[in-house]
């Protein structure tokens, strides 16, 4: 057990000194609750990536019922994201520099907004919080400028406060 009383949890700080805490045990791919999609292509940036084009995900309650955590609605991938879920996307960054990251989100007022961490490989980049958007299909963009090094990387979205929908992430 760590000095703060947690087991296997790591707290990392972003450049804005905001903490992103996640359970490193959930990133162990040998666990049944972590699911990979090995055939998924690496995303070349800049790009808009539909939420369902992830390379791996963790969701505590869906791993036995369904190998794919997301459903298709109207030809688009989207679904309700829950607390402690994460989605990983493999990307190729052609040139180091600052990029605009935005998430297309929807959140019903009765469920509240959301809180999500953005991690590059295992280093935190940003933590985004947002208020309800007014409905499950009232889409809004939430984002921040992030700095990315050139090369192949994994971007992980870590859901800290769930109960909202994600349609896509855009990095340009």
Automatic annotation (TrEMBL):
PROSITE patterns: CBM6 (PS51175). Transmembrane segments: none annotated. This is Carbohydrate binding module (Family 6). It comes from Halomicrobium zhouii. It comes from the Archaea. It holds the Pfam family CBM_6. GO terms for molecular function: carbohydrate binding. Gene3D superfamilies: Galactose-binding domain-like. Residues 13-31 have a biased composition (Basic and acidic residues). InterPro entries: CBM6, Galactose-bd-like_sf. Residues 52-172 form the CBM6 domain. Residues 1-45 are annotated as: Disordered.
